[in-house]
Design a protein that fits this description.
single chain, mainly alpha
């Protein structure tokens, strides 16, 4: 027959082992709880920061500086407006369109090569988008699908001297007729 003291010692040992397992589990749970509380605090801080920023008046928020990056604004061309109002990317495209090769019309792949870019689809499509934006804003002409050239600037608008108003009007009508006939030729 087993002794009572031996049975008590065996039971005490099992209880001590159970306590040790529970303490290890409690430490794991405490570590998980600490991680969850830190994550919660980060979320609370982020929400408070966003609420502060949204509560500020809109004019207090700093506006990002304009740069010559994608999605830059191309102003509508107005009488006497120089290409210097465009960002450098658009100025480079316009200078190629105004070059000898561009006057006859240039495809976007040729435009990419002329600008020193690889003629890969991503670059070509980016240039096509920019060229179409120049067309929409009156800086260039799309002669036929995918072929672009610079808008012919009437001599009267070039800075090399002044003409009487009547000559200016006649010159503008002639240049407009030339552009219209070029456009009509591409339609047929």
């Amino acid at each position: 027959m087993p002794s009572v003291l031996g049975l008590l010692e065996a039971r005490e040992k099992r209880v001590r082992e159970g306590i040790a397992r529970l303490r290890e589990e409690a430490e794991r749970v405490q570590a998980a709880l600490d991680d969850a509380e830190r994550a919660l605090q980060r979320l609370v801080d982020a929400r408070a920061t966003v609420a502060e920023v949204l509560a500020e008046p809109s004019d207090a928020v700093a506006k990002p500086a304009r740069s010559g990056v994608a999605r830059s604004v191309v102003p509508r061309r107005a009488e006497g407006m120089a290409a210097s109002v465009l960002t450098s990317d658009y100025q480079r495209i316009l200078s190629v369109l105004e070059s000898q090769a561009g006057r006859e019309g240039i495809r976007c792949q040729q435009l990419a090569v002329a600008l020193g870019l690889e003629a890969v689809p991503a670059k070509v499509e980016g240039l096509r988008s920019k060229a179409k934006r120049l067309v929409e804003r009156g800086w260039a002409i799309q002669m036929r699908p995918g072929v672009f050239t610079a808008l012919a600037v009437p001599a009267a608008l070039k800075p090399a001297g002044r003409r009487p108003a009547r000559r200016l009007l006649i010159s503008m009508v002639i240049d407009h007729s030339t552009v219209a006939s070029c456009m009509a030729g591409s339609v047929s």
